[in-house]
Design brief:
34% helix, alpha+beta, 10 helices, six-stranded antiparallel β-sheet, 352 residues, 13 strands
Length: 352
Protein backbone atom coordinates (compact mmCIF):
# COMPACT_ATOMS: atom_id res chain seq x y z
CA UNK A 1 0.00 0.00 0.00
CA UNK A 2 2.80 2.40 0.91
CA UNK A 3 4.50 1.65 -2.40
CA UNK A 4 1.30 2.41 -4.32
CA UNK A 5 0.83 5.66 -2.39
CA UNK A 6 4.43 6.71 -3.05
CA UNK A 7 4.08 6.00 -6.76
CA UNK A 8 0.84 7.98 -6.86
CA UNK A 9 2.51 10.99 -5.21
CA UNK A 10 5.44 10.85 -7.61
CA UNK A 11 3.13 10.69 -10.64
CA UNK A 12 0.91 13.47 -9.24
CA UNK A 13 3.94 15.67 -8.53
CA UNK A 14 5.29 15.06 -12.04
CA UNK A 15 1.96 16.02 -13.60
CA UNK A 16 1.85 19.19 -11.49
CA UNK A 17 5.34 20.17 -12.62
CA UNK A 18 4.46 19.58 -16.26
CA UNK A 19 1.33 21.69 -15.96
CA UNK A 20 3.29 24.47 -14.24
CA UNK A 21 5.96 24.36 -16.96
CA UNK A 22 3.32 24.64 -19.67
CA UNK A 23 1.61 27.56 -17.92
CA UNK A 24 4.97 29.27 -17.36
CA UNK A 25 6.00 28.82 -21.01
CA UNK A 26 2.67 30.21 -22.18
CA UNK A 27 3.04 33.22 -19.87
CA UNK A 28 6.60 33.89 -21.09
CA UNK A 29 5.49 33.53 -24.72
CA UNK A 30 2.86 36.17 -24.05
CA UNK A 31 5.32 38.58 -22.39
CA UNK A 32 7.84 38.30 -25.23
CA UNK A 33 5.25 38.24 -28.02
CA UNK A 34 4.06 41.73 -27.10
CA UNK A 35 7.40 43.10 -28.40
CA UNK A 36 8.77 40.55 -30.85
CA UNK A 37 6.61 40.00 -33.94
CA UNK A 38 6.89 37.17 -36.47
CA UNK A 39 7.95 39.26 -39.50
CA UNK A 40 10.20 41.75 -37.68
CA UNK A 41 13.73 41.50 -36.30
CA UNK A 42 13.65 39.04 -33.46
CA UNK A 43 15.18 37.82 -30.28
CA UNK A 44 16.18 34.75 -28.31
CA UNK A 45 15.48 34.08 -24.65
CA UNK A 46 16.64 31.52 -22.12
CA UNK A 47 15.68 30.82 -18.51
CA UNK A 48 17.70 28.41 -16.38
CA UNK A 49 17.72 27.38 -12.74
CA UNK A 50 21.23 26.21 -12.02
CA UNK A 51 22.10 24.05 -15.01
CA UNK A 52 18.51 23.13 -15.81
CA UNK A 53 17.03 25.00 -18.78
CA UNK A 54 13.41 25.93 -18.07
CA UNK A 55 12.73 27.97 -21.21
CA UNK A 56 14.58 28.47 -24.50
CA UNK A 57 12.94 30.01 -27.52
CA UNK A 58 13.46 32.26 -30.57
CA UNK A 59 11.14 34.90 -32.01
CA UNK A 60 10.99 36.88 -35.25
CA UNK A 61 13.55 37.03 -38.03
CA UNK A 62 17.35 36.76 -37.96
CA UNK A 63 17.59 38.28 -41.44
CA UNK A 64 14.82 40.33 -43.02
CA UNK A 65 16.22 40.37 -46.55
CA UNK A 66 16.49 36.59 -46.75
CA UNK A 67 13.46 36.01 -44.52
CA UNK A 68 15.45 33.73 -42.20
CA UNK A 69 13.57 32.77 -39.06
CA UNK A 70 15.41 33.26 -35.78
CA UNK A 71 16.73 30.14 -34.06
CA UNK A 72 17.66 29.80 -30.36
CA UNK A 73 21.34 29.04 -31.10
CA UNK A 74 21.98 32.10 -33.30
CA UNK A 75 24.87 34.45 -32.54
CA UNK A 76 24.46 38.12 -31.54
CA UNK A 77 26.60 41.14 -30.75
CA UNK A 78 26.19 41.50 -26.97
CA UNK A 79 27.49 45.07 -26.57
CA UNK A 80 28.30 46.06 -23.01
CA UNK A 81 27.77 42.57 -21.64
CA UNK A 82 31.37 42.33 -22.89
CA UNK A 83 32.35 44.21 -19.74
CA UNK A 84 31.68 41.06 -17.68
CA UNK A 85 34.35 39.21 -19.61
CA UNK A 86 36.81 42.08 -19.36
CA UNK A 87 36.30 42.33 -15.60
CA UNK A 88 36.78 38.60 -15.06
CA UNK A 89 39.89 38.64 -17.29
CA UNK A 90 41.35 41.35 -15.04
CA UNK A 91 40.39 39.27 -11.97
CA UNK A 92 42.12 36.21 -13.43
CA UNK A 93 45.31 38.22 -13.94
CA UNK A 94 44.97 39.54 -10.38
CA UNK A 95 44.83 35.96 -9.06
CA UNK A 96 47.97 35.20 -11.06
CA UNK A 97 49.76 38.06 -9.29
CA UNK A 98 50.25 40.03 -12.51
CA UNK A 99 48.31 43.05 -11.31
CA UNK A 100 46.35 44.36 -8.33
CA UNK A 101 42.95 46.02 -8.31
CA UNK A 102 44.52 48.98 -6.49
CA UNK A 103 47.33 49.42 -9.03
CA UNK A 104 47.41 52.86 -10.62
CA UNK A 105 46.94 52.85 -14.38
CA UNK A 106 50.23 54.69 -14.90
CA UNK A 107 51.97 51.49 -13.76
CA UNK A 108 50.92 50.02 -17.11
CA UNK A 109 50.48 53.16 -19.23
CA UNK A 110 53.16 55.51 -17.87
CA UNK A 111 52.34 58.40 -20.19
CA UNK A 112 48.63 58.48 -19.35
CA UNK A 113 47.76 62.06 -18.26
CA UNK A 114 46.00 61.53 -14.93
CA UNK A 115 45.79 65.30 -14.37
CA UNK A 116 47.21 64.94 -10.88
CA UNK A 117 44.77 62.19 -9.86
CA UNK A 118 45.37 58.66 -8.60
CA UNK A 119 43.35 56.49 -10.99
CA UNK A 120 43.32 52.78 -10.19
CA UNK A 121 42.13 49.61 -11.91
CA UNK A 122 39.36 49.52 -9.29
CA UNK A 123 38.15 52.93 -10.47
CA UNK A 124 38.03 51.70 -14.07
CA UNK A 125 36.11 48.53 -13.16
CA UNK A 126 33.50 50.43 -11.13
CA UNK A 127 32.97 53.44 -13.45
CA UNK A 128 34.26 55.79 -10.75
CA UNK A 129 37.45 56.99 -12.48
CA UNK A 130 36.15 60.35 -13.72
CA UNK A 131 37.72 59.77 -17.13
CA UNK A 132 35.63 61.15 -20.01
CA UNK A 133 33.51 58.53 -21.78
CA UNK A 134 34.77 58.56 -25.36
CA UNK A 135 31.30 57.72 -26.72
CA UNK A 136 30.14 61.14 -25.49
CA UNK A 137 32.81 63.06 -27.43
CA UNK A 138 31.34 64.80 -30.50
CA UNK A 139 34.30 63.96 -32.73
CA UNK A 140 33.62 60.24 -32.37
CA UNK A 141 31.91 60.18 -35.78
CA UNK A 142 35.27 61.02 -37.35
CA UNK A 143 36.80 57.76 -36.10
CA UNK A 144 33.74 55.49 -35.97
CA UNK A 145 34.68 53.54 -39.12
CA UNK A 146 38.45 53.50 -38.59
CA UNK A 147 40.34 50.48 -37.29
CA UNK A 148 42.34 51.82 -34.34
CA UNK A 149 44.82 50.18 -32.01
CA UNK A 150 43.95 50.35 -28.29
CA UNK A 151 46.68 52.99 -27.91
CA UNK A 152 45.18 55.09 -30.73
CA UNK A 153 41.72 54.83 -29.20
CA UNK A 154 43.03 55.87 -25.77
CA UNK A 155 44.82 58.81 -27.42
CA UNK A 156 41.42 59.94 -28.73
CA UNK A 157 40.08 60.64 -25.22
CA UNK A 158 43.01 60.80 -22.80
CA UNK A 159 43.52 64.58 -23.04
CA UNK A 160 39.87 65.33 -22.28
CA UNK A 161 39.16 67.07 -18.95
CA UNK A 162 38.15 64.73 -16.11
CA UNK A 163 34.43 64.66 -15.31
CA UNK A 164 35.18 64.38 -11.57
CA UNK A 165 37.89 63.23 -9.21
CA UNK A 166 38.32 59.44 -8.91
CA UNK A 167 35.91 57.88 -6.43
CA UNK A 168 33.76 60.99 -6.08
CA UNK A 169 30.97 59.83 -8.41
CA UNK A 170 29.65 56.84 -10.33
CA UNK A 171 29.21 57.52 -14.06
CA UNK A 172 28.95 54.68 -16.56
CA UNK A 173 32.07 54.86 -18.67
CA UNK A 174 33.24 52.93 -21.74
CA UNK A 175 36.68 54.57 -21.72
CA UNK A 176 37.57 52.80 -18.48
CA UNK A 177 36.97 49.39 -20.02
CA UNK A 178 38.99 50.33 -23.11
CA UNK A 179 41.92 51.04 -20.78
CA UNK A 180 41.30 47.73 -18.99
CA UNK A 181 41.50 45.93 -22.34
CA UNK A 182 44.81 47.62 -23.04
CA UNK A 183 46.11 46.60 -19.60
CA UNK A 184 45.11 42.99 -20.29
CA UNK A 185 47.18 43.10 -23.47
CA UNK A 186 50.19 44.68 -21.77
CA UNK A 187 50.17 42.25 -18.84
CA UNK A 188 49.38 39.06 -20.75
CA UNK A 189 51.38 39.67 -23.92
CA UNK A 190 48.30 38.66 -25.96
CA UNK A 191 45.71 40.70 -27.79
CA UNK A 192 42.47 41.19 -25.88
CA UNK A 193 40.67 38.91 -28.36
CA UNK A 194 43.31 36.18 -27.96
CA UNK A 195 43.25 36.37 -24.16
CA UNK A 196 39.46 36.05 -23.95
CA UNK A 197 39.43 33.24 -26.51
CA UNK A 198 42.22 31.20 -24.91
CA UNK A 199 41.38 31.78 -21.24
CA UNK A 200 37.58 31.96 -21.22
CA UNK A 201 35.82 30.88 -24.41
CA UNK A 202 37.97 27.84 -25.18
CA UNK A 203 38.11 26.33 -21.65
CA UNK A 204 34.34 26.78 -21.25
CA UNK A 205 33.59 25.37 -24.71
CA UNK A 206 31.84 28.61 -25.67
CA UNK A 207 32.14 27.68 -29.33
CA UNK A 208 29.69 30.34 -30.56
CA UNK A 209 31.49 33.20 -28.79
CA UNK A 210 34.26 35.35 -30.22
CA UNK A 211 35.56 38.87 -30.72
CA UNK A 212 33.39 40.45 -33.41
CA UNK A 213 34.55 40.85 -37.00
CA UNK A 214 32.96 42.24 -40.15
CA UNK A 215 35.23 40.11 -42.34
CA UNK A 216 34.93 36.64 -40.81
CA UNK A 217 32.25 34.21 -41.89
CA UNK A 218 30.47 33.54 -38.61
CA UNK A 219 27.95 30.72 -38.72
CA UNK A 220 24.47 31.48 -37.42
CA UNK A 221 25.19 35.21 -37.02
CA UNK A 222 21.99 37.29 -36.76
CA UNK A 223 21.87 40.51 -38.81
CA UNK A 224 21.37 43.78 -36.93
CA UNK A 225 18.72 46.42 -37.61
CA UNK A 226 17.50 49.91 -36.72
CA UNK A 227 13.92 51.13 -36.94
CA UNK A 228 13.48 54.50 -38.62
CA UNK A 229 10.38 54.96 -40.78
CA UNK A 230 10.98 51.31 -41.62
CA UNK A 231 13.55 48.69 -40.64
CA UNK A 232 17.04 49.36 -42.03
CA UNK A 233 20.38 47.58 -41.77
CA UNK A 234 22.49 48.62 -38.80
CA UNK A 235 25.11 51.35 -39.08
CA UNK A 236 28.68 50.19 -39.71
CA UNK A 237 31.17 50.73 -36.89
CA UNK A 238 34.69 49.44 -36.50
CA UNK A 239 34.79 46.89 -33.70
CA UNK A 240 38.07 48.42 -32.58
CA UNK A 241 36.00 51.22 -30.98
CA UNK A 242 33.80 49.28 -28.54
CA UNK A 243 36.78 46.94 -28.08
CA UNK A 244 36.94 45.59 -24.50
CA UNK A 245 33.84 47.57 -23.55
CA UNK A 246 31.50 46.04 -26.12
CA UNK A 247 32.87 43.98 -29.04
CA UNK A 248 32.04 40.37 -28.20
CA UNK A 249 29.62 38.02 -29.91
CA UNK A 250 27.79 35.21 -28.13
CA UNK A 251 24.64 33.07 -27.93
CA UNK A 252 22.21 32.36 -25.12
CA UNK A 253 23.58 28.82 -24.78
CA UNK A 254 27.15 30.08 -24.40
CA UNK A 255 26.06 32.75 -21.95
CA UNK A 256 24.51 30.03 -19.79
CA UNK A 257 27.87 28.20 -19.84
CA UNK A 258 29.45 31.49 -18.74
CA UNK A 259 27.00 31.91 -15.88
CA UNK A 260 27.48 28.31 -14.70
CA UNK A 261 31.28 28.80 -14.75
CA UNK A 262 30.92 31.88 -12.56
CA UNK A 263 28.60 30.13 -10.14
CA UNK A 264 30.90 27.11 -9.81
CA UNK A 265 34.12 29.17 -9.50
CA UNK A 266 35.56 27.57 -12.63
CA UNK A 267 37.48 30.69 -13.67
CA UNK A 268 38.15 32.52 -10.41
CA UNK A 269 38.15 31.57 -6.74
CA UNK A 270 35.28 32.29 -4.37
CA UNK A 271 37.16 35.11 -2.63
CA UNK A 272 37.76 36.79 -5.98
CA UNK A 273 34.14 36.30 -7.03
CA UNK A 274 33.08 38.06 -3.83
CA UNK A 275 35.09 41.09 -4.97
CA UNK A 276 33.52 40.96 -8.43
CA UNK A 277 29.98 40.89 -7.05
CA UNK A 278 30.42 43.41 -4.26
CA UNK A 279 28.32 46.57 -4.23
CA UNK A 280 31.11 49.15 -4.05
CA UNK A 281 31.00 52.61 -2.51
CA UNK A 282 32.22 56.09 -3.34
CA UNK A 283 34.70 58.01 -1.25
CA UNK A 284 31.78 59.21 0.90
CA UNK A 285 30.64 55.58 1.47
CA UNK A 286 27.51 55.85 -0.69
CA UNK A 287 26.81 52.58 -2.54
CA UNK A 288 27.02 52.76 -6.33
CA UNK A 289 25.02 49.63 -7.24
CA UNK A 290 27.90 48.26 -9.31
CA UNK A 291 30.63 45.67 -8.81
CA UNK A 292 33.24 44.66 -11.37
CA UNK A 293 31.33 44.38 -14.65
CA UNK A 294 27.85 43.86 -13.16
CA UNK A 295 25.13 46.04 -11.70
CA UNK A 296 24.42 44.88 -8.14
CA UNK A 297 20.82 45.71 -7.26
CA UNK A 298 17.79 44.53 -5.33
CA UNK A 299 14.69 43.28 -7.14
CA UNK A 300 12.20 43.60 -4.31
CA UNK A 301 13.92 41.69 -1.52
CA UNK A 302 16.06 39.65 -3.91
CA UNK A 303 19.69 40.34 -4.74
CA UNK A 304 20.29 40.57 -8.48
CA UNK A 305 23.44 40.64 -10.63
CA UNK A 306 22.61 42.07 -14.03
CA UNK A 307 23.88 43.88 -17.09
CA UNK A 308 22.65 44.87 -20.51
CA UNK A 309 24.29 45.87 -23.73
CA UNK A 310 23.51 48.12 -26.68
CA UNK A 311 25.48 48.38 -29.90
CA UNK A 312 24.33 49.40 -33.38
CA UNK A 313 21.58 46.96 -34.36
CA UNK A 314 21.58 44.86 -31.18
CA UNK A 315 20.51 44.90 -27.54
CA UNK A 316 21.13 42.37 -24.77
CA UNK A 317 20.19 41.80 -21.15
CA UNK A 318 20.88 39.19 -18.49
CA UNK A 319 19.73 38.88 -14.87
CA UNK A 320 21.07 36.41 -12.31
CA UNK A 321 19.35 35.91 -8.97
CA UNK A 322 22.05 34.23 -6.83
CA UNK A 323 19.74 33.13 -4.02
CA UNK A 324 17.50 31.21 -6.43
CA UNK A 325 20.32 30.41 -8.91
CA UNK A 326 17.98 31.74 -11.60
CA UNK A 327 19.47 33.05 -14.84
CA UNK A 328 17.46 34.89 -17.51
CA UNK A 329 19.04 36.22 -20.70
CA UNK A 330 17.62 37.85 -23.82
CA UNK A 331 19.31 38.95 -27.04
CA UNK A 332 17.72 41.13 -29.75
CA UNK A 333 18.85 41.91 -33.32
CA UNK A 334 17.20 45.32 -33.48
CA UNK A 335 18.16 48.16 -31.16
CA UNK A 336 14.49 49.17 -31.37
CA UNK A 337 13.52 46.08 -29.35
CA UNK A 338 15.11 46.11 -25.93
CA UNK A 339 14.95 42.84 -23.98
CA UNK A 340 15.69 44.60 -20.68
CA UNK A 341 12.19 44.92 -19.22
CA UNK A 342 11.18 41.53 -20.63
CA UNK A 343 14.12 39.78 -18.96
CA UNK A 344 13.41 41.49 -15.64
CA UNK A 345 9.71 40.60 -15.86
CA UNK A 346 10.56 36.97 -16.62
CA UNK A 347 12.99 36.83 -13.71
CA UNK A 348 10.27 38.18 -11.43
CA UNK A 349 7.76 35.64 -12.74
CA UNK A 350 10.00 32.63 -12.13
CA UNK A 351 11.25 33.80 -8.74
CA UNK A 352 7.84 34.52 -7.23
Amino acid sequence: MRTVTSLFLIVFSTIQMEIYSQVAASKIDSIIGQTFKENEPGGVFLVAKGQEILYRKAFGKANLELEVAMQPDFVFEIGSMTKQFTAVAIAMLEEQGKLDFEDEIVKFIPDYPTQGNKITIHHLLTHTSGIKDFTKIKAINEIAKKDLSPQELIAFFKEEPMDFKPGEMYKYNNSGYVILGCIIEIVSGQSYAEFIQENIFKPLNMSSSLYASHEKIIKKRASGYHLKEEFVNSTFISFSLPYASGSLLSSIDDLLKWQIALETNTLVQEKTKEKIFKNYTLNNRDEIGYGYGWHIVKRGERLSYEHGGSIFGFKSMAVYLPEEKMYVVGLSNCDCHSPTKIVKDIASFYSN
